[in-house]
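User: Can you help me understand a structure? I only have the sequence.
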Amino acid sequence: QVQLVESGGGLVQAGASLKLSCKASRGTIADAAMDWYRQVPGKTREMVGGITAAGRPFYMDFVKGRFTASRGNVKNTWYLQLNNLQPEDTAKYFCTFLGSWGPGTQVTVSA
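Assistant: Let's start by predicting it. Here is the structure, written out as tokens:
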């Protein structure tokens, strides 16, 4: 099973930026799509976007123009750049790859 670890979350003010990372213990970035999700306690986990196996990024409408998914030069690493963060973006962010999930990284945005 692939082990995933997210990092890069934090507490920021509205309008700030963060860059999340997701590193996999094995596999290659061309093996499958890597998706980003987020979840607020008490709510369903929702997809944010991700990268297809072919390297094409995709996003949900509520983050288009603000979030950017990319693949790193380091093997098995992906990134999610979060710009112009808003309080409603507060959530734990997860990456998923080859059927595995990471533990998540918390993003908290104050007004």
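Now, to help you interpret it: Residues 27 and 76 are 7 Å apart (CA to CA). The chain has a mean pLDDT of 92. Let me know which part you'd like to focus on.
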